[in-house]
Amino acid sequence: MKLRRDRKKFIVPLNSMSDVAFLLLIFIMLVALINYRREVKIEYPEAETAKKTSAEKNAEIWIDRSGAIYLDGLPCTLTTIENTVGDLYRNAPDTRLHIIADRDTPFSNVHKVLEILQLLQYRVVSFVVKDA
Fold first, then answer.
1. Is the alpha carbon torsion for 53, 108, 45, 84 positive or negative?
2. Which class for 132: exposed (0-12), middle (13-18), buried (19 or more C-beta within 10 A)?
3. Which pairs with CB-CB distance under 8 Å and at least 24 residues apart come from 76-85?
4. What is the DSSP string of 60-106?
5. What whole-number distance in Å separates Cα of residue 1 and Cα of residue 114?
6. Domain ranges of the chain
7. What is the pLDDT of residue 2?
8. Distances (CA, A) of 45 to 63, 70, 80, 92, 127
9. Among 15, 37, 88, 92, which has the minimal tally of Cβ within 10 Å of its Cβ?
10. What's the pTM value of the predicted model, to 2 decimals?
11. pLDDT for 4
12. Domain 46-131 carries which CATH code?
């Protein structure tokens, strides 16, 4: 018994291809605009003079007014900062650490972080302030 196979032509409709391409373009543009940087809401202290640094190779340590510490926007402890900054220093010693503290943060909270950086001998540190 011999079976016959009919070959039917398969046609791709090209009418909607431009619509699909346009929607894909919009999707890519929206995804590219998403800001993945996590920020902690603080009130920046003011400074008379400020120096701008490059946005590349930065790590941020945030300290809010209650003394909570965040590393790149994620809550952490002093031990976590010590371990992470130690690894960061071994892997990329030219990475700049930005310390961003709220205006009303007691200096003792900032000093705890600075003691850790001093023990690790981390020398590329900046304090982020609001330009007056």
1. positive
2. exposed
3. 78/112, 78/113, 78/116, 81/113, 81/116, 82/116, 82/119, 82/120, 85/59, 85/116, 85/117, 85/120, 85/122
4. EEEE-TT--EEETTEEE-HHHHHHHHHHHHHH-TTPEEEEEE-TT--
5. 87
6. 46-131
7. 62
8. 12, 18, 25, 29, 10
9. 15
10. 0.61
11. 59
12. 3.30.420.270
Reading the block at residue 30, the tokens are 């929206």
Q: Which two tokens stand for residue 96?
A: 């700049």
CA-wise closest residue to 89 among 116, 128, 51, 50 = 116
Report pLDDT for 17: 81
| Length in residues, the chain | 132
C-alpha closest to that of 85 among 122, 114, 56, 111: 122
The predicted structure's pLDDT at residue 18: 83
Q: Which residues are bridge partners to 76 per DSSP? A: 69
Two tokens, residue 67: 């003394």
Which parts of the chain have pLDDT scores under 50? Answer: none
